[in-house]
């Protein structure tokens, strides 16, 4: 079962949220404090949303952070999946059910589409099977080793 946490529930789940978010977003340890302070502020002010999947025993199985954004070219709203972290193996049918739930949430929020970035091959494979299509790729280069 997937549920959206309201801002007053964030402190209750904060340890789980921050553990999953730091790992899913690949945050370097030196940047944890800044990243987590910004994330907490955005979650408490409803600038970001947190969804959790609970097992039948009410254990947290997964954490997902989303943001409602605007396309800078069209001005239309979309739901951006900032990150997703799973604490346990989940079946494809459960992911499909979660994806349908998130799409319904996005439609209720008047979003035109959902969007995400991922370097996790399993997530890319699964979402491709669910009908997602690649829009673009983001590549980066660390300038730490460049002299000058």
List the SSEs and their pairings.
Elements lengths: L1 E4 L4 H15 L7 H13 L4 E6 L5 E11 L6 E10 L5 H17 L4 E4 L4 H9 L19
Parallel strand pairs: 4-5
Antiparallel strand pairs: 1-2, 2-3, 3-4
Helix pairs in contact: 1-2
Features:
five-stranded mixed beta sheet, 4 helices, 36% helix, globular, Aminopeptidase, 148 residues
Question: What this model shows, in words?
Answer:
The protein has 148 residues and is an alpha+beta fold. It has one domain: Aminopeptidase (3-Layer(aba) Sandwich). It has four helices and five strands, in the order E-H-H-E-E-E-H-E-H. It has helices spanning 10-24, 32-44, 92-108, 121-129; strands at 2-5, 49-54, 60-70, 77-86, 113-116. A five-stranded mixed β-sheet has the order 1-2-3-4-5, sandwiched between helices. A hairpin with a 6-residue loop joins strand 3 (60-70) and strand 4. The radius of gyration is 16 Å and the shape is globular.
CATH superfamily: Gcn5-related N-acetyltransferase (GNAT)
Strand order within the widest beta sheet: 1-2-3-4-5
Query: What is the terminal-to-terminal distance?
Result: 52 Å
Please state the oligomeric state of the protein chains shown: single chain
* Secondary-structure-derived class: alpha+beta
What is the average per-residue confidence, as pLDDT, rounded to a whole number? Answer: 90
Under CATH at level 1, the class stands as Alpha Beta
CATH fold category name: Aminopeptidase
Helix content: 25-40%
Biggest sheet: strands, sense, closure?
5 strands, mixed
**Helix count?**
4
List SSEs in N-to-C order. Answer: EHHEEEHEH
Radius of gyration: 16 Å
Tell the overall outline: globular
Q: Note the beta-strand portion.
A: 15-25%
Number of strands: 5
CATH architectural label: 3-Layer(aba) Sandwich
């Amino acid at each position: 079962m997937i549920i959206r946490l309201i801002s007053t529930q964030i402190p209750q789940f904060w340890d789980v949220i921050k553990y999953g978010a730091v790992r899913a977003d690949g945050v370097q340890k030196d940047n944890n404090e800044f990243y987590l302070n910004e994330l907490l502020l955005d979650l408490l002010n409803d600038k970001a949303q947190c969804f959790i999947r609970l097992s039948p025993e009410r254990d947290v199985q997964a954490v997902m952070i989303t943001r409602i954004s605007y396309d800078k070219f069209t001005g239309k709203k979309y739901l951006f999946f900032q990150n997703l972290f799973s604490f346990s193996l989940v079946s494809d049918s459960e992911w499909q059910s979660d994806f349908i739930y998130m799409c319904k949430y996005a439609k209720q929020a008047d979003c035109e589409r959902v969007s995400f970035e991922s370097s996790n091959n399993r997530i890319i494979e699964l979402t491709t099977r669910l009908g997602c299509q690649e829009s673009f790729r983001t590549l980066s280069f660390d300038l730490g080793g460049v002299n000058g």
